[in-house]
């Protein structure tokens, strides 16, 4: 069975931007996130070689979610100028490493990751991300999340059991769980006075949100019942904000749209020379030996 490796671009770019001290390129431009991503591409190429994959970006404001809730993500500060200056160069490195760059105006990367996963065919999918919202995609041991770890355990694979242990609910319930709990990262307010344990308890007892709300009349009188009655429309709005859209890139042509190319080692060496990435260039020279190839899983 083949495997598709998808990278939630900004989750990794921001992580590396803040994890790596500020570096400057040979031209004096900010380069810390770029250096981290180039190193990540090398690591993935060695440890998770796949025939299909993509670097998936947000592009513009999410039309649907902002229409439903104008304050969606409104609290987030603008992208730092030092990071913005690196984005086009990150995409250039990605394409030289053979990664298709996927984005669609008005859609978030999460929606595209969901859409591509839904069209996986017989392939398994591994999504490199730090976004908890994507836990709702994990399914059938064929769609899993991948998180960078530490020196001892470089990667953490989140399967159905791991998602259930993390949230206290099944992956299929993560959307409803976040609808109750909210998400401060996306400026989605949760239900007042109700935390993770209550959210998990409700979903495990009653099932999907619709069942929970339908059972309000049989819920014992008290603060919880009063909250559910008062917050019903809020909960349903949250669910629409958290729900993923299964969007596909424009001109989608099945998994052929995300078939990876072989790395262009010579171009990568040129890019590294431009940036002053001598250590990465040295590693590329080792990797560009004739025996380098892709493997199917």
Task: Walk me through this protein's architecture.
This protein is α/β, with parallel strands linked by helices. The chain is 44% helix and 9% strand. The chain contains 13 helices and six strands. A six-stranded mixed sheet has the order 3-2-1-4-5-6. A hairpin with a 6-residue loop joins strand 5 (143-148) and strand 6. Helix 1 packs across helix 2 (32-47), helix 7 crosses helix 11 and helix 12 (265-275) runs antiparallel to helix 13 (278-287). The longest helix has 16 residues, at 32-47. The radius of gyration is 21 Å and the shape is elongated. 37% of the residues are buried. Mean pLDDT is 93; it is low at 291-297.
Main structural class: alpha/beta
| Average pLDDT taken over every residue | 93
What percent of the residues sit in helical stretches (DSSP H or I)? 40-55%
Strand content of the residues, in percent? 5-15%
Helix and strand sequence: EHHEHHEHEEEHHHHHHHH
Let me know the number of strands. 6
Strand order of the largest sheet: 3-2-1-4-5-6
Main beta sheet, described?
6 strands, mixed
Q: Identify low-pLDDT runs.
A: 291-297
Radius of gyration: 21 Å
Q: First CA to last CA: what distance?
A: 5 Å
The number of helical runs is 13
Shape: elongated
Oligomer: single chain
């Amino acid at each position: 069975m083949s495997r598709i490796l998808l990278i939630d671009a900004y989750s990794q770019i921001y992580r590396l931007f803040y994890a790596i001290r500020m570096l400057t390129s040979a031209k004096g431009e900010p380069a810390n996130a770029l250096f981290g991503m180039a190193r990540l591409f090398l690591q993935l190429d060695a440890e998770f070689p796949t025939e299909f994959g993509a670097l998936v970006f947000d592009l513009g404001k999410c039309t649907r979610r902002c229409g439903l809730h104008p304050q969606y993500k409104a609290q987030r500060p603008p992208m730092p100028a030092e990071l913005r200056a690196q984005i086009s160069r990150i995409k250039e490195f990605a394409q030289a490493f053979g990664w298709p760059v996927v984005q669609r105006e008005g859609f978030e990367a999460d929606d595209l990751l969901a859409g591509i996963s839904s069209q996986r065919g017989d392939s398994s999918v591994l999504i490199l991300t730090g976004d908890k919202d994507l836990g709702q995609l994990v399914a059938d041991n064929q769609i899993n999340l991948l998180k960078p770890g530490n020196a001892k355990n470089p990667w953490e694979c989140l399967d159905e059991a791991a998602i259930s242990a993390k949230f206290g609910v099944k992956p299929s319930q993560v959307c409803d769980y976040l609808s109750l709990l909210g998400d401060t990262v996306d400026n989605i307010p949760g239900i007042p006075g109700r935390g993770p344990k209550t959210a998990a308890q409700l979903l495990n007892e009653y099932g999907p949100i619709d069942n929970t709300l339908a059972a309000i009349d049989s819920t014992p009188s008290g603060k919880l019942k009063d909250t559910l009655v008062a917050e019903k429309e809020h909960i349903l709005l949250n669910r629409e904000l958290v729900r993923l859209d299964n969007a596909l890139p424009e001109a989608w042509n099945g998994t052929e749209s995300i078939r990876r190319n072989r790395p262009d080692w010579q171009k990568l060496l040129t890019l590294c020379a431009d940036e002053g990435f001598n250590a990465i260039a040295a590693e590329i020279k080792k990797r560009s030996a004739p025996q380098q190839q892709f493997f199917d899983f």
